[in-house]
Design brief:
heterodimer, A: 518 residues, alpha/beta, Rossmann fold, six-stranded mixed beta sheet, 20 helices, globular, B: 307 residues, ABC transporter involved in vitamin B12 uptake, BtuC, two-stranded antiparallel ribbon, 13 helices, 72% helix
């Protein structure tokens, strides 16, 4: 009996070699615990999903494995050997590669130059030229087609990700870490990526990918580890668990999925936003919007679908007064507000939830209080025109922090120390608490975890219920379909299609996003 | 007569352009790696006084050049330490370096005012200097001119066609990316700023040993600032630096010949600075800046665990 057990163990070792083992990892950033006594194991030939909300410590843990951060405590074993990873170079030498959520690419350089950067044993002269042949070999082997001479800034996001993966393959990585790899991809690109990952796993590589999308975990991974508030709360073979259980572990309570919430629709005939044949330039001075017209009514959510860079950003900026409208008219609540100042537009009851929340939604170094009153600090009751009324601001902020479930050490904490979800809650608190008539929401849940997404969707629905018109710009088709009453699709600055959300098919919209007219 | 005048102006153009070229080549490397060094003026003038003083003592101008290079390099290390290691503000540190250099050089140079020095001899390249017209313009200079000319293609090649060059440019564009691939960001930046310092020092030596072989307080007269403008003007490309430096050198050289035409001296002397302002005005427009492609991480200290 004993003998048979031993034999079984031996056998298991052959087929499931543990290549990465992290034991008791603890890491703190200026008082915030990102990882606490985390144990993590990944095996060769398997795809291991690391699931968790934003701020759960997934990225920190993987950055430690890649040598970017040093753990305060804990041990790391790679391929059975205890290692100290002082820098990414150490990790690379051990065969670890990482594809970061925000790509680590040099946009003005060519694909080949990006791949050869920091490559050990590359030739001194003409290094980029000399790797082209091998690069093409690897790229065709894994179905990662790419032009080695193209400049990275010319590539689509999906292609840029291919460059990132090729970078790790070129370095002979057999342990590959991907941080939220699908957050920027279109559905077909996602499908391709997973095909490539499966192929790599079949070859015996260890694939670890960070995500907060349950769907992906269920579809692709062999094993899953759930992190919550910096700790491992759950780990299992994927086949032995399900979406509901994972969601519960991840959030720490039961979750309602969008589909279960239903979609209370009521559209009134009162138009809140009327966009009339507007044309707008982008940063490079090229036409970003060409004769775009649409309306949004009271109590209606209009979804704007499209791949990033097809004019969504410019549209939002034009409506909110941040970008000059070249031609056409923008009427809000019947008033012509074309090319008026953002403060004037806001004054009439327009709220703006901007994309790139850290860059444009908040002032990172200011406190929670200051960020909450950023729009209204200049008038009573927040100030008397010169002095700020801190007593009132504090009480007001405390009220919003409770109401919107903003997790912050205290009201004076600089906002930059909070997680993405909490930053977004601050923005929503600021924008929604004043009962807006029109809400311009740009990628409101981008990069957020389920709990925060659910919360934000609920808030938007509430506002809709109160009669606010909502313009929802998002790349997440599921989000658009579940929230919107109507959907328009932007492609190269033009509206290429319009649907009632209840009648639209997600595949059809997906095709339109790629420029195929319905 | 006419031809001789043209020859002498063009020859002078190259000489006036040489310190600008050396300085600009160095600053291009520093900025390509992401470090803005506004201390060029200070390093240059310290190079000038060091070169002059050490030539007086040793009688050998090449000792002067070497000493100037060393002093320029050392001064750049101050800037590197503050802006790379301590992650301080590069503008403040660079300005401080310039003020420090101007002040200290004045103090050191007090005893050398009015002295003369053995200047670096001209070295006519045997056959080439006999070519009519071009010969006397291009091939009858001192070795530093040839050195600066040789550096242009060499530094261009290193920057764009070698492994080190990719490292340098990447560190200046996206240091986090370079870091994750195992490139030593700190070392790369130190080396580039040091290169800039050495060349600024040599540029200073050229001023006090060749261009006006004496020591005058403040003799760089803003050439360090012209270098900063030229770095932008050349779009951080060593080949363009050659054009820019000689263009500005030409403006300098032509002054002496326009004087007899009745244009006031002060207006003529203003020209290089006027050009500098125009260049800087041109490139401060954000759109233009994006087009000419300034290194994306220029002026931003890199720290790995910054959140």
């Amino acid at each position: 009996m004993r003998r048979r057990n031993e034999f079984k163990e031996m056998n298991e070792n052959i087929y499931s070699e543990v290549t990465v083992e992290m034991k008791g990892i603890t890491k703190t950033f200026t008082g915030v615990v990102a990882n606490y006594k985390v144990d993590f194991k990944a095996e060769a030939g398997k795809i291991h999903a690391v699931l968790g909300e934003n701020g759960a410590g997934k990225t920190t843990l993987m950055n430690i494995l890649y040598g970017i951060y040093q753990p305060d405590e804990g041990e790391i074993f790679v391929k059975g050997r205890r290692v100290k990873l002082k820098s990414p170079r150490d990790a690379i030498n051990l065969g670890i590669g990482m594809v970061h959520q925000h790509f680590m690419l040099i946009p003005p350089h060519s694909v080949a130059e990006n791949i050869v950067l920091g490559l050990k044993g590359s030739s001194f002269f003409y290094p980029a030229e000399k790797i082209k042949k091998k690069l093409l070999e690897i790229s065709s082997k894994y179905g990662l087609e790419i032009n080695p001479d193209a400049k990275v800034w010319q590539l689509s996001v999906g292609e840029q990700q291919r460059v990132e993966i090729l970078k790790t393959l070129f370095r002979g990585s057999d342990i590959l870490i991907l941080d939220e790899p699908t957050s920027v991809l279109t559905p077909p690109e996602t499908k391709n990526l997973f095909k490539t990952l499966k192929k790599m796993a079949d070859e015996g590589k260890t694939i670890i990918f960070i995500t907060h999308k349950l769907e992906e975990v269920m579809n692709v991974s062999d094993e899953v580890t759930v992190l919550r508030e910096g700790k491992v709360v759950f780990t299992s073979e994927t086949s032995k668990t399900n979406k509901k259980e994972l969601a519960k572990e991840m959030v720490g309570r039961e979750i309602l999925f969008n589909s279960e919430l239903g979609n209370g629709k009521f559209v009134k005939d009162r138009v809140s936003l009327e966009v009339e044949k507007i044309s707008v330039l982008n940063d490079k001075g090229l036409l970003a919007l060409k004769n775009v017209s649409f309306t949004v009514s009271e109590g209606e959510i209009l979804g704007v679908a499209g791949v990033a860079g097809n004019g969504q950003k410019e549209l939002v900026e034009a409506i909110t007064g941040l970008r000059k409208v070249l031609k056409g008219k923008i009427k809000i609540l019947g008033k012509d507000l074309t090319n008026k100042s953002p403060r004037e537009i806001h004054g009439i009851g327009v709220s703006h939830i901007p994309e790139e929340r850290v860059k444009t939604g908040i002032v990172p170094n200011l406190s929670v209080m200051e960020n909450v009153v950023l729009r209204d600090y200049y008038h009573p009751p927040f100030s008397n025109g010169f002095f700020l009324n801190w007593k009132f601001i504090r009480a007001y902020t405390q009220n919003l922090v409770d109401q919107y479930r903003i997790l912050t050490p205290n009201l004076n904490t600089p906002v930059k120390l909070l997680s993405g979800g909490n930053i977004q809650r601050i923005i929503l608190a600021r924008e929604i608490s004043r009962h807006p008539k029109l809400i311009i929401a740009s990628h409101p849940t981008y990069g957020l975890d389920i709990a925060a997404t659910e919360h934000i969707h609920k808030l938007l629905r509430e506002q809709k219920g109160k009669g606010a018109a909502v313009l929802l710009v998002s790349e997440d088709l599921d989000e658009i379909m579940s929230l919107s009453d109507r959907v328009i699709v932007l492609f190269r600055g033009e509206i290429i299609g319009e649907f009632k959300a209840s009648e639209a098919k997600i595949e059809e919209i997906g095709l339109m996003m790629a420029g195929v007219k319905g | 007569m006419e031809v001789e005048l043209i020859i002498s102006v063009l020859k002078l153009t190259m000489e006036a352009g040489t310190p600008l070229l050396l300085g600009t080549l160095g600053e291009i490397y520093a900025e390509r790696s992401g470090v803005l060094n506004l201390g060029v003026e200070g390093m240059m003038i310290m190079g000038a006084v060091t070169a002059f003083a050490s030539t007086i003592y040793t009688g050998n101008p090449w000792v002067g050049v070497a000493a100037a290079a060393a002093v320029g390099g050392l001064m750049s290390l101050i800037h590197s330490f503050i802006s790379i290691t301590l992650k301080g503000n590069q503008i403040v540190s660079g300005l401080a370096l310039t003020m420090f250099g101007l002040g200290l050089s004045g103090l050191i140079g007090k005893n050398y005012i009015g002295l003369t020095v053995r200047r670096i001899n001209e070295f006519s390249i045997p056959a080439l200097s006999k070519i009519p017209f071009l010969g006397p313009i291009i091939f009858q200079h001192d070795l530093l001119v040839y050195l600066s000319l040789a550096l242009v293609p060499i530094m261009w090649f290193i920057l764009f066609k070698t492994r080190i060059g990719i490292n340098i440019r990447s560190v200046g564009e996206n240091p986090a990316a370079a870091d994750t691939l195992g490139v030593n960001v700190v070392l790369t930046r130190y080396l580039c700023v040091f290169t800039g310092g050495v060349l600024a020092g040599v540029a200073g030596a050229y001023l006090s040993l060749v261009y006006t072989p004496e020591w005058i307080e403040g003799m760089t007269a803003g050439k360090g600032w012209i270098v900063i403008a030229l770095t932008i003007f050349s779009t951080w490309n060593p080949l363009n630096a050659l054009v820019g430096a000689y263009l500005f050198g030409g403006i300098d050289a032509i002054q002496f010949n326009l004087q007899p035409l009745g244009i006031p001296v002060n207006v003529l002397k203003m020209l290089p600075y006027l050009m500098t302002i125009i260049v800087l005005l041109m490139v401060t427009r954000k759109t233009i800046r994006k087009k000419i492609g300034a290194p994306a991480a220029l002026g931003i200290p890199y720290s790995r665990e910054e959140k």
